[in-house]
Amino acid sequence: MKDKLHIYTIFSVIIIVIVIAVLIGGILTPKSFGDYGHYRWKSIAEIASKEVINQNVEVCQECHNNLYLIHKKDAHYGVPCVDCHGPADMHVKYYKSDSTSKAITQDQATLKKEYNLEGCLYCHRKLKARPADFPQIDVKEHYTFLNVIDSTTKCTECHSPHEPIFLLTEVNHSRLHPIISQCGDCHTEKVDNDYSKVPNHPKIFECQDCHNEIYADFESKPHHNHIECTSCHLFHKQNETSGRMYKNGNAKFCLLCHETKSFKNPDYPPKIFWPEHIGNLKYLANINQKICLNCHVDKIHKMKLDLKAAPHTVNWIKEHGKLGLNASGSDFNPTCNQCHETNYCTNCHQVKIPHPNDWMETHHSTVEKKGKKVCQNCHKPAFCADCH
Amino acid sequence: MLLCWLRYGGEIMGPTSFLFPNEVHITWTVMIVLYPYITGMVAGAFIVSSFYHVFGMKQLKPIARFALVSSLAFLLFATVPLLNHLGKADRALNIILTPNFTSAMSGFGYIYMAYMVIVILEVWFSYRSDFIKKYHNAKGTVKFIYKILILWNDNDNDNTKKYDHKMIIFLGGLGIPVACVLHGYVGFLFGSIKANLWWSTPLMFIIFIFSAIVSGLAVLLWLYIFVHWLRKTKVNQESVDLMSKWLWGFMIIAVTLELMEILSISYERTEKWEILSKLIFGELRWSYLYLQIGLFSIGSFLILSLTSLFKMKTQYKNFLIWLSSGMLLLQVLLMRWNVVIGGQLVSKSLRGFTGYFPGLFEKEGILVGLIILIVPFILLRYFDKLFPFFDSQKISETK
Amino acid sequence: MEDINRKKFIQLCMYTSAGLFAGYFFGFSKNEVDVTNLSFENLEKFDWGYVIDTTRCIGCGACVRACKVENEVKDTYFRTWVERYEINGKEVVRVDSPNGALSSFSHDNFDSDIVKAFFVPKICNHCYNSACTQVCPVGASYHSPDKVVLIDKDHCVGCGYCVQACPYACRYIDHEVGTADKCTLCYHRIHQGLEPACVDACPREVRIFGKYVRFCMNADSEF
Questions:
Q1: Stretch A312-325: mean pLDDT, rounded?
Q2: Interchain contact, B98 vs A38, CB within 8 Å
């Protein structure tokens, strides 16, 4: 027995050490471990209570509702604010003006706003892997097509990020249209052949199949050789059989090609300066209306412009200036008066008709301010010559 | 070194190579190569020691205590590479506090401690008589230390020796499966990771154990011959002969298993062969084909065949055995490298490779690795003073 | 790989959503839960569904950028990423993911002859029988009661076993903290009635998320 003592001793030592270790282990084990599974239950609350950084659209809308409504209506409606403006958590905290705002500087609160060319290209660069119906551009081709001569031109020179294609109606409410196919929907390579020359080619529905009259008219007009139907009538494929048609008739859209800008080729297409182009009627220069079409519809194709044409010609806005100039002498009696009140003209023209009684004296200062041509809006030059 | 010749991904696959974004840096570094290497030597050395204590192979008596103490020395350092590798080593105790037993790695804490207890106990029982003698001869603080070591019990007679002997046999027998689990679980861990196609095989556990025995035998032989050569003492030729024959035998089995694994994958031609063939013949060409298999396996096989089958002058024989043990030590190290690092070089997409070079002075770099490898040997040198295990007579000639 | 249930579910949803808006089909709805009321019983009632419609993905990388910011993901690691597959006429497949598509893709890979090409966004699949939770030695990787795979970053020791075990390579070791890390399905957002950051950021409704209300598979369905 005595001879076995050392064996008992050492094993007792080991057992005591184990017992102490187990006790210490019980103290060191985290409290909530094993409550609902082999994990620390408290960590769920810890993970769930992390601060949210990326602000979602509803938060932005609370303050920027006007911008939100514009954004919602146009092609970028699916792009959330954070994609371009960053997380905006500092921005929201700063402007909320509560206890958390104090720690934030103006600098931190500033949103990232300037999105350079590269940023737009993250989505819109032309890549073979992107679905063919997604709007994508090859920068060089795009600028060549638009006759832009400065290759560093930012997208935002023409496209507002919130309203990239100035849609007239909200995307989901615009007109449903049967599918119109393009070569790129199936072909990954550029196609040269006219598909009608390829035997057994599947039928592709083109605009002229249904809209033959308009297309025939378009073919005779100057825009035909330079743009296609879908340049102005944007088509957005919604599913395999249909999409939505958007029309772009506002001056804003026409000016994308036709306004003089430093980064554009000055010679082609024909360029104007805006709003100088409409001269004295500058106050009418609302680019969110179809005012270009009022005068230039004959360059595009037959279209229904709600200009109350009959009995006037369709382009009566352009032409009526001549009608008003048949007067000479003191009695300005244009043929407009046959149907319209005298003051009808003042709807557009900022002038009192009939002129105030002291026009003889006051017209000098008017001419000084607005130039001689202001009288010739309505009167022939001979009218001024009566006195001068 | 040979590590510099490891090629980096991309050269072999070319432009169709692909890696998942999170795979650019590998997770298990050279530390995880060293850990199974060290525990392999632990398990191998312990099993050799048990061959004498449990199975009574008398030829191994001279090296039995040496094997046991070597096992202890390496065991004390087995966790160092792991602790170095852990992202949060301060929480290392979590493995013991909250082990998740569905995981092969969770058993590590308990197995390691249990095995440590067994080895320490066996060492204690083996050296108890020596400690008691030293206790009686020592003075002062040293005497006090020895007093603690013998647990205030200096009872030493034939009876106690008999009981000690029985305990050693019991512990040796108990320790064999525990040692197998201690090292085998690493192999099992690798073999059961279905996401890594270089690792995933049921044979991995077996391969690791057999190559562990090889490395255990090799390190014992290598050290034994080397130390005796340094000290100019005579080796026990019977032990050396037996161990070298066993080394030869086990190494044949281990290499055969490894090669059968490769043969099986290449013959079966499942989806993974396409990328694994590029791994073997490309990324790992030098470290696996030329060095591990070519030079160190076939080379040491030939050398050990010579020494085992043919008679030759003892001097040359022992030198060749020493040389081939060293080669086999490197072979086992390379095998760990090729498994651990090689497996992580392959992308889980099966489309490419990443690259790895353990930096020189990094936390898990080459310098640290070398230190971790060398320190157990230094420790063993000092253990020789505390637990003397070479009791051989000096002779005037070497070897 | 062997997570049959999860893979079947994802495949089924992908086919269903091709060309359609799968979210409306399955009747996803937003949850309203008080973040302080995260009891086991409440959480168990949730069953999240996450669908990725790869036919609509344009590879813009908005999801990758949003996730990086929301979860403060360190450089060179990704909780979500987008891969691009390009197949040419000789059936050679080229896969790439430049920096995880953080800055989108800058050019096509093949010069010509691309027959098929598409993007595949990837995240952690939150497998039901996940390999990662099985192999965690300390119980730091686990399934929450609402079946989201989470990592307890105060308990993880950073051994890296889970990173090895994940067949989808969606886990990584965050070297600054020393623990494992991965997509948490924006757990902090979904329990406040928001969508995960990647779902919110996607401009093309590629990623669809919601409470899984109804899963119908009847004899008439074509799958």
A1: 64
A2: yes
